Amino acid sequence: MINSQNIVNNLEMTKKNVITLKEIAKELGVSISTVSRALNDHPDISVETKEKVASLAKNLNYIPNLFAKGFRAHKTNIIGVIVPDIGHYFTSTVLKGIMREAEIHGYKVIVSESINNEKRQAEMLQTMIQFGVDGILLSLSRTTISVDSVLKTLENVPLLLFDKVSLKVPCTQVIIDDEEAAFSAVEHLIQTGKKRIAIIKETEDSYNSKMRYLGYLRALRTYNIEIDESIILSSENISMQNGKRLTNQLLSMKVKPDAIFAITDSAAIGAIKSLKRSKIKIPQQIAVVGFSNSNSSIVIEPKLTTIDQPGNKIGVVAAQYLIKEMNATTQLEPKTIVIKTNLIVRDSSFNPN
């Protein structure tokens, strides 16, 4: 009879090695293929052998090497995800959706962060390929100029873009209608009587910022409101701090705006903080609308009117389509899936009194 505890003790007396199929096979006096097939419940292996192998593997704390297994089977059941900023609230909701959907279909998820750096993004794509992932979900860094590394990756594995996308990449893309969402935000401000509406957007020509800016312009043109370049402000990083800074710039003007549309909640919250510090009444004197519906939007006072960007649903849908493409026997035609958004009206833009 095999004494599994003695085997464990002997191994611990040497060094902390990762237990392999070879070591299990040696202790049981069987072939490596027999151990492998036993662990995979192969019908050619007897119940007695399966039980012995399973018992020893458990006692030795054997952990299958997914990469080695995937190399042999040409499938690892691992999805790689690359995002610009893992600490962003919206990103966290997308990741929850991705991981939940992946788990339902038996996939593990590896998450990496490009920190909004194009070079690091290219490195992460290469790393994902080296890991042998079955597919990749990518949200582009806002500094992305060249998509060559993305196109090369697409030649090796199925790849799907979500949120921050590019029309230069011929793959399935999961997005919201940024232009329409921004249009509805600015239209709401106009319908509350605002006529001099400033915008805080990104300096870079990122897809999201560009579309939201176009929505802003379309709303002004639709309602015959003059476009004033002096209240169209940009920043490389649309943060709370820059929201404060740019709002202070607006407040220094002789003719101040009567509303501010910021393309992120962070910048909008920065705007509210700046306005409150300057004793500006919100929304009576200057209204504020943000974008994302982050947790902070209901903590700030007054509560922030914002576009609800359903991150969880975006993650679920992105994972669903990628898994479908990974398991397709023939190459599927790329699609653009648009997820619906809603304007959440709160106190920063609407005063019922």
General description of the model:
With 353 residues, the chain is α/β, with parallel strands linked by helices. The protein has 13 helices and twelve strands. It has helices at residues 4-14, 21-28, 32-39, 47-59, 66-73, 89-104, 118-131, 148-154, 178-191, 207-222, 240-251, 265-277, 311-326, and strands spanning 78-83, 108-113, 135-138, 159-162, 173-176, 197-202, 232-235, 259-262, 287-292, 305-308, 336-339, 342-344. Strand 8 (259-262), helix 12 and strand 9 form a beta-alpha-beta unit.
Features:
disordered N terminus, 12 strands, 6-stranded parallel beta sheet, 6-stranded mixed beta sheet, alpha/beta, 44% helix, 353 residues
User: What is the end-to-end distance?
Assistant: 84 Å
Radius of gyration: 27 Å
Count of DSSP helices? 13
Structural class: alpha/beta
Helix content: 40-55%
Strand order of the biggest β-sheet: 2-1-3-4-5-11
Looking at the chains present, what oligomeric state does this protein adopt?
A: single chain
Q: What's the total count of β strands?
A: 12
Largest sheet: 6 strands, parallel
Approximate strand percentage? 15-25%
Question: pLDDT average, as an integer?
Answer: 90
Shape: elongated
N-to-C SSE series? HHHHHEHEHEHEEHEHEHEHEEHEE
Unreliable stretches (pLDDT < 50, length at least 5) are 1-8, 10-16
